[in-house]
């Protein structure tokens, strides 16, 4: 049979089939089981030909198993126990030979990824008719500098994985309505083709919603402009936007599919919809939208183990996401599809971090045990994350469990590779495990990416925010405050990320009330008088002798990426601003998106020498000397407070002294030889020097 070629090709005579069945429950004999069920045993003698010995011993008369009479009673139970319970049975480890099942080797293609079941055996995946297990690892191309894609993919292959999985972030690919970007670090096609060149299959997860701890779960923020539009439903406004996005995305995917000679063997429909479950017609709609545009490869969904039933879509394989393996891991999945192979689409081998929370780690031995169990029971899996990368810029999401909390800049995730692509204990444990079940040697492990410690730098020049306002785009003047998404900028798409400054003259004090999301600093002229957030919606303004400028600087700290809360993630000031219950009107609104063009304009600004100490939002400029051959490093800002770091105009992300993250990853490929411009936008209070280290502090 073709399926056998992928599992033990090239090996000598084997007696695994009978022995493996005996070992399903070694502590209980067949006789004991049969007796408990009231079965009567008969002795049936079957002589096996033994090529390794001419003699016939009682040990080799394996036919004394009473199989024709006993197994019919137990086969269903064995199947169920083996499908739903891990840890009890110990089938022998097979050796896999998939050397002929790689994108480079498979030239004649017709069948793609599928499912099959042989006799009374468990259902399994097939690839071009050969039995196949998915050993997947997640790498998000948009979280990794393009120059390092090859390094990370080679390390995935060298560890023993055969598949890479990635999300596709709608918000990055369509930053403005109708304006698409698939260039540079967002070149999806280049990433997929590189994976094929290295010998990896690809599972694409194009959303439209992806979660992924990204701002709004990867949905574009301009969808929030229309209050009638309901996210992740068949609401007219949402489906119209999805249709246009898919019209640009899917034609790029079509030639990358398996049947077209590409490496994409499967496509995921949406993501974790079972926990959202607002519209029963939504998932079937997306299923048809993909088919209608020419997606012909294997389709699947992905849900938490408790939400499989509500996320199930007819005609699509249901896969599960999980953090730990336990006795009833697959019980819900078994209810919706008994005749399909098991796929763990996300095995969380670590976790993301949030500001003000602890750094999460997961024991490497626990990961090794779980993956070993998957292999023993022929369960396909995807390790989330193999390499997490970084939430560069403003792409981080947030959680909301009674309180809004932003996700940190690092997406290290305690993954198999570190944020900077270095090896971990998990890497070597998994590599050793995969090597033990591989019939062919694994590729050579790539060399480490070198790191460097650069001389400390002390910013020499600074520019208070108030002096930088004239270098921003033309402000919006409005009778009432306008939330970030509804500002009339960016071709009618509003503002997605960064900060918004609301300014108005006032001549009296009193109780100020405003709904600000996520955090707002309130100033009288240039002096901060308090902070507004979701839990603090008012503050006292002292009596004024003269008219002063009321300034409210609001930061988007990341839109919630999970749960129904995504519908209410408008940022900036939402609603009116009042003093003593009297609404204020006539605002000047500045958009601080911190784009590259802004920093280019700042070169003509009149910067000032940095004072001993400065309180309030300001930009600080210095020079990082990287030498003739720049290398990766980590910036340490331990004596700074809260803000963002820009290297040569690139936004590395947020720093915050509440932790847990204490350093920012700086890829060497983003540095110029010798001098590099470093600009900090510090919101609170100036620090002193900026140091670098060759080891992260997470």
TrEMBL record:
One of its GO terms (biological process) is carbohydrate metabolic process. Residues 617-676 form the Beta-galactosidase galactose-binding domain. The active site is at residues 272, 346. One of its GO terms (molecular function) is beta-galactosidase activity. It comes from the Eukaryota. The keyword Hydrolase applies. Residues 494-593 form the Beta-galactosidase 1-like first all-beta domain. InterPro entries: B-gal_1-like, BetaGal1-like_ABD1, BetaGal_gal-bd, Galactose-bd-like_sf, GH, Gly_Hdrlase_35_cat, Glyco_hydro_35_CS, Glycoside_Hdrlase_35. Residues 125-435 form the Glycoside hydrolase 35 catalytic domain. Keywords: Glycosidase, Hydrolase. Its EC number is 3.2.1.23. Pfam families: BetaGal_ABD_1, BetaGal_gal-bd, Glyco_hydro_35. It catalyses: Hydrolysis of terminal non-reducing beta-D-galactose residues in beta-D-galactosides. Belongs to the glycosyl hydrolase 35 family. This is Beta-galactosidase. It comes from Colobus angolensis palliatus.
